[in-house]
Amino acid sequence: MERGSMVVAVGENNKIAGIPLQKCLRYSAKEKKKIEIPQPFIVKQYNRYMGGVDQLDNHISNYRIAMRGKKWYTPLMYWAIDVCVVNSWNLARQYGYKKDQLDFRRGIAKELLSTYGREPPVAGKKRAAIRYPASASGRHLIITGEARRRCQSCKNKTNKRCDTCKVPLHDKCFLEYHNS
């Protein structure tokens, strides 16, 4: 049998060199009608199940997470989350879920916010209450190498704190704070 420039020899039992064949319909320009030609079983299986990646890409593009980041892996992370959501939605539909993907995503977002969400902060500047030493008779030492925090006295950044009070203080503010 000749197809294009390739010659295919069909042997006994409808097989080409041990490959199982099936019949499929293709349009013949010569005969101006559809004719049956042999097709390997693997090609039929591929054609039957192809399109899954195209469907996945289409479903992802409908509600893609549109956030950008400075790191190269950020889009990969968002893509992986999108793939997980679309696959979960497809599984849910197989088990009888009737709503569309947007409702499914909203349900996930609501569940995550109710479990892990926090109340939004109240607008306005917060002022820390001034803390005084726990005991005036205790021994107070300056500890260096701490995380940078605001000095309790002058409000400038410092990496020192009082060991007893756990209050961030500069050297010059240390005595002033403990004597007041």
Outline of the structure:
The protein is α+β, with helices and mostly antiparallel strands. It has helices at 41-49, 52-62, 74-94, 101-116, 171-179; strands spanning 2-3, 6-7, 15-16, 19-28, 33-40, 142-143, 149-150, 157-158, 161-162.
Index terms:
single chain; 180 residues; alpha+beta; 3-stranded antiparallel β-sheet; two-stranded antiparallel ribbon; 18% strand; rod-shaped; disordered N terminus; PGBD; PiggyBac transposable element-derived protein domain-containing protein
Q: What's the assembly state of these chains? A: single chain
Q: What is the number of E strands?
A: 9
| Biggest sheet features | 3 strands, antiparallel
Q: Structural class, from helix and strand content?
A: alpha+beta
Q: What is the rounded distance between the termini?
A: 104 Å
Order of neighbouring strands in the sheet with most strands:
3-4-5
In which range does the helix fraction lie?
A: 25-40%
Number of helical elements: 5
Query: What is the mean predicted local confidence, pLDDT?
Result: 82
> Which strand-content bin applies to the residues?
15-25%
Protein name: PiggyBac transposable element-derived protein domain-containing protein
InterPro entries: PGBD (IPR029526)
Organism: Acanthoscelides obtectus
Pfam families: DDE_Tnp_1_7
